[in-house]
Amino acid sequence: MPHYRALRPTDAEAFIQYLEVLDYQHAPQWSGCFCRFYHTDCSMEDWMARDRTTNRQETLLAIQNGTMRGYLAFDQDHLIGWLNANAIDAYPRLSNFVEPYVHTQHAVALVCFVIHPQYRGQGVATGLLTFAVNDLAQQGKTEILGFPFEDPQHPQRAYHGSLSMYLKTGFTLLESRKNQHIVCFTPQK
Q1: Any idea what the CATH number is for the domain that residue 117 is in?
Q2: Which pLDDT belongs to residue 152?
């Protein structure tokens, strides 16, 4: 049975190692991301020109200094999943996209699930989501936004989670744009 907890500064090396050993055959461009994409605001051309060493180092430092936040899933002591969850302003790449949906300074975005292939389809992402929502609500966050993308032609884009998973966890669908959905959870006070 998986267990979950918030990312800690001391998890930086283990997190980097986790991402380095995953199989990215389904989406080779992600092998050098280290979950930095949404934390940047450079052009797509500049992003594609960035090297994995830069992303790796930025992620390592961001975790160590506490600016990169999220949640980890473990099977005993083995890291098996990650959810990138942080304040909206930690994701400059999302600022224009989320602006119409943010109504409080205590808003959080959930942007990436990275589940080990051996554990996919076993509820790990749902467990991470449920744990994150409860923890964020306890921290006083008043809006939790998710952006599930569903495209049967491109299943690798499901790294934002599935719409059904969000709805099952109590999120409300705010808008759908083709295959992109915007969902929100507002914790009860």
Answers
A1: 3.40.630.30
A2: 78
